[in-house]
Each structure stands twice: as C-alpha cells, then as structure tokens.
Amino acid sequence: MHSEDPFATPADTFDNGFATPAARQPQPQPLRFSFTGSGSEFFRIWIVNTLLTVVTLGVYSAWAKVRTLQYFYRSTRLDGATFDYHGKPSAILKGRAIVFGLFIGYQAVAAVSAGLSALLALALALVFPFLLVRSLRFRMANSSYRGLRFAFTGDDKGGYMVFLVWPILTGLTLMLLGPLAHQRLKQYQHDNTRFGTAPFAFEARVGQFYQVYLVTAGLSLLCLLGSSVLVSVFASVATGTSGSVIVLILAAITIGLYAGLLLVAPVFQALMQNLVWNHTTLAPHRFRSSVGVGRLFGIVLTNLILTALTLGLFYPFARVRTARYRVESMTMLAAGPLDAFVAGEQQQVGALGDAAVDWYDIDIAL
C-alpha cells in the first residue's frame, strides 16, 4: 500500500530525483551593459573642451570634466535606460582651487624653510583623506540611474585608513602590502556605496589581489629581462659599428622597453576589472565582468599607435574604444525584473525623505 504524507510540502516532492519547479530557485536574468557613444561625437566635445581650457588658462577644465562625465554616463545603458551625472562645475572648480592653493602654499613655505615645509607636508597628508572622502560622496550623490541617485556612506576613519595608513605601510614594506592596500580600498568603496537604499557589497579576498599583482609583476620582469638580453646581444656584436647607429639602436631598445612596460597596464586593468566586479553585489543582484586580456591589449596597442601617428588627435576615439569594450564586457545578473527593483528603491527613498543623501559641494577630481 502507498500512504501519502499529509505534512509534505512542494519542496519535498520529487520527480525522477529532481525538485519540482516550485522548489527551484529562479535563474538570474543576464542584463548586458552597452555603450552608445562614438569617437566622432566625443571628438567634438573634446576639442572644444581643450581649446576653451587653454584659452581660459585652465579655468574651463571644471566645465570640461562635467561635459565629459555626462557624455560617458549618458552613453552607458543598462536594461534600456542610461546613467546620468549631475555635478556642478563650480564644485569641481572649488575643489581644484583648494588643491592649487595648497600646492602654492607648500611651494612658498618650502622656499623659506625646509622644516616648515615638512610640517606642512604632514598637515596636507592629514587633510587629503578628509577631502577624498568628500569627493567620493560628491561623485556618488551626483550619479544616477533612472532618476535614482547613488550615495557613498563611508566615514572619515575608514577614509584615513585606505588613503593614508595603508599607503604609508605599503611604502614602508617596499610595496609588499600594495595588493592588501588595494583590496582594502576597493572594499571601502564598494561596501559603502548604495543605490537608493540598496547596498553594494564586496567579497574579493586579499589573496586574489596578490595573484593579479604577481602576474603583472611577472610580465614587467619579462620586459626588463628581454631588454637586458637585447642590450647584451647588441653589445657583443656592436664592435666596429658607428656611434650614430649605436645610439639609434639603443634608443629603439629603450623605447621598446617603455612600450612593453606601458602595455602591461591593460593586462592589469583587465584582470582587476574582472576580479572587482565578479565579486561585487547590489542587494540580491550580482555582476559579471569578462574583459579579455588579449582583446584589451590589442585595443590599447592600436590606440597608442594611432594616437602617436595623429599627434594626439586620435585620443578621443581611443578613449571611446576602450570605454566601449570595458563597459560592454559587463553584465548584471538580475535576481528579478530591474524596473521593479528600481521602482521599489524610489519608493523607499521617498519614504525616507531622501534624508540619507549627503551633498558635499566639493570635488577634487578623484
């Protein structure tokens, strides 16, 4: 005889050894980021920004930064909607004026007394973490998606740790603590950022940061060793070669060395973007980054060549090419409909009266 359990639930019912649909967790919905900007559009913005910045002796750079950020934010799309930037140029100009004033003051004091300059340098080191935290708050408070603002809630204690204490310890240990300091910085940034009331979270371990740094350091070492081998080979066969040819060959080797080291940067950027975003969540949603090291390397290499051949005029096209690839390598693994999530967050923020958003009228271009 077969007797049924009167207390059985749907989760307890199996068919051919598998849970019924009622017991299965819903699959996350992959939402790809896209970038709609073009090099020609950004070139027009960039050339006007550059000319006006030169004509105004740098004053227009604050407005140039806002126009640039707005273009890249508004060109980034997720689930049919774009991001936006609302920062005021006056706040950026104020922040840069503060930094410029501190620099001029330091130069003036250094010309008078070495002891006073050391004390002022210490004072500046104590002030900058305070300003950097407010710069992060400014950037997040002025960033939005579908009309809902982001926010940064990190405190000054954490800011002093990641912007002052950990860098000092990194220097004292001859960069051995660099990956640890970097992990603490990203953790501070992501764990203290929210979208509406929904918090971001960061889960990457310190050991994973050390792996990225070790790979990058290994490639840099290979570049240095390769350059040393070339110099040694050249020295062994250069007997009787004219001085001008020797200078040209050594210059070519040096340029090749610097180019090799420069091209290590996209390897680091690709590995770091994947590490950071593959371990970042937004409430129930996750992110996935799939930047290809070889692909990004190729983009950066061709960007460098074309920028050099055009005497810098290809720069805006290069910037758009890089941004498009890095943005479109990102996917949000949404745990549910994103429009419902955003609508819920807007209601939650509205219920709180948006009192949790701190507006700091300063940005030092972090």
UniProtKB/TrEMBL annotation:
Record field: transmembrane: 43-64, 95-112, 118-137, 158-181, 212-238, 245-268, 296-318
UniProtKB keywords: Membrane, Transmembrane, Transmembrane helix
Annotated region (Disordered), positions in chain: 1-29
Protein's recorded name: Uncharacterized membrane protein YjgN (DUF898 family)
Species for this entry: Cupriavidus agavae
The organism's taxonomic lineage, starting at the top: Bacteria, Pseudomonadati, Pseudomonadota, Betaproteobacteria, Burkholderiales
